[in-house]
């Protein structure tokens, strides 16, 4: 079973009379010997972790247990202090630091989440969920698209089925279509979302929101508050059937059913793999390879994985510690062939504070440019990782080793963190 801060949690049912899974409330039935969802933050914070603290405020790492739920396959975090966990059974649970409409929770659960911590069931039957700046977007297993919060920066009232673009609690359906396949959004300015919808073999790219950086793939920077087909050239819709899409700060990557990689949008740091730093106005194929199966993008770097388990990176900026070059083309990172997942973190749009987490061979590793004193490491600052090297998570945590399998992790910005991110873990 999992160990946190050197303490075996399998026999811990409560701390100071509070259930370890939910801070004294039980939105998720507490179990031992299964798994946990927990967070790391740099300093004791009262929100969004109130009532969910685990063990040791004085410890430099400050680990917090949010729940002991199992089967977590995805986690997400919203800049307005809303965090969520999606389980393999399609249940999406949300915790909140603030009362309000952003979380998709009922009014009573909003209050409980704000005052007591913990995770509460927000939506069932979910296949995919992402944050937008003021709420969540979710695709259900039946192919319908749903939203919570305030979405007027991305879609207008007509595009969300009429009425208002604000829901004070709960969720609303976007239109009535049942062929939504994938979706992603950027949870900050510029407010943008991209999606894939359509029948198998005819799943096409759509975009909406602010047109900043050509992120909508229309050849201009005009905003659109309705879902609009992404184009391959002026007046021509991209007709490639797509399998997945990603967006970050107006930079977009997508992979077709045939394994082609496409990019478009803001390219000031060479993240689109086109060999330059020129913004790309339309969805454009990257190279000629047809064996891509996953991709990730950050304002400062793009990543793509192929079916052989090789990871590639494109950037114009050094300092990542893993970048093979700064040539602005997708270039293989090392020679490993066991990559499974990547998580990218930058503390600021203006600094070069890079941390990248990679899942390789079933385990999670990290590459970083240095950890300040008082972060995960403790009271002593730690130099950045060796160029080209990944280090195991526990090599960074040292005093706070986690035993058990890290099934999923999600880095996020915490106001209490400086250059190193806070992280949510799902453990088994």
Task: Walk me through this protein's architecture.
With 428 residues, this protein is mainly β. It has a domain at 179-360: Methylamine Dehydrogenase, Chain H, CATH 2.130.10. The chain has helices at 107-116, 393-397; strands spanning 3-4, 7-8, 14-15, 18-19, 36-40, 63-67, 72-78, 82-87, 92-96, 120-123, 126-132, 135-140, 145-147, 172-173, 180-186, 192-197, 204-209, 224-229, 231-233, 236-237, 242-248, 251-256, 261-265, 280-285, 292-298, 301-306, 311-314, 331-332, 339-346, 354-360, 363-368, 391-392, 406-412, 422-427. The radius of gyration is 21 Å and the shape is globular. Mean pLDDT is 81; it is low at 1-34 and 43-61.
Provide the fold topology.
Blueprint: E1 3-4, E2 7-8, E3 14-15, E4 18-19, E5 36-40, E6 63-67, E7 72-78, E8 82-87, E9 92-96, H1 107-116, E10 120-123, E11 126-132, E12 135-140, E13 145-147, E14 172-173, E15 180-186, E16 192-197, E17 204-209, E18 224-229, E19 231-233, E20 236-237, E21 242-248, E22 251-256, E23 261-265, E24 280-285, E25 292-298, E26 301-306, E27 311-314, E28 331-332, E29 339-346, E30 354-360, E31 363-368, E32 391-392, H2 393-397, E33 406-412, E34 422-427
Antiparallel strand pairs: 1-2, 3-4, 5-6, 5-34, 7-8, 8-9, 9-10, 11-12, 12-13, 13-14, 15-16, 16-17, 17-18, 19-20, 21-22, 22-23, 23-24, 25-26, 26-27, 27-28, 29-30, 30-31, 31-32, 33-34
